[in-house]
Specification:
Elements: E1 10-16, H1 22-33, E2 36-39, H2 40-49, H3 56-65, H4 71-84, E3 89-93, H5 99-108, E4 114-121, H6 125-129
Length: 132
């Protein structure tokens, strides 16, 4: 994934339910600390939309059926996005989503990055109910 003398990219996983504020917090971290925000869902949707995508139909089928996309595809898209970036600090939003994702990441990517931690955003029922 990188040259011998290159520093390993730094990664923070950003997890939480829809509406938990992951995007808001990512925007603040990007502004304050210079991380690149990689949304696993957005990368999948972009790949699905490419006319000659090798994985477009597979992604489309999984998303329409509400299934998780094969980990090899998700990890491949994340790796490509990190390789294309000049910045080497990443917030990965929406990944991993299950144990298979964790195992795939560990097998294919973990040795090539420095995992700094996991940010888990939680919506408190009381504060969320005030907006309804």
């Amino acid at each position: 994934m990188m040259g011998i003398n290159a520093m390993k990219p730094k990664v923070i996983f950003v997890l939480g339910a829809p509406g938990a504020g992951k995007g808001t917090q990512c925007s603040k971290i990007v502004s304050e600390f210079g991380y690149v925000h990689l949304s696993a869902g957005e990368l999948l949707r972009e790949e699905r939309a490419k006319p000659n995508s090798k994985y477009g139909k597979i992604i489309d089928t999984h998303l329409k059926e509400g299934n998780i996309v094969p980990v090899e595809i998700s990890c491949g898209l994340l790796k490509n996005a990190m390789l294309q970036s000049k910045t080497k600090k990443f917030l990965i939003d929406g990944f991993p989503r299950n144990e298979d994702n964790v195992q795939g990441w560990t097998k294919d990517v973990a040795d090539h990055v420095t995992l700094q931690g996991v940010f888990f955003s939680i919506v408190h029922w009381r504060s969320a109910s005030k907006d309804v």
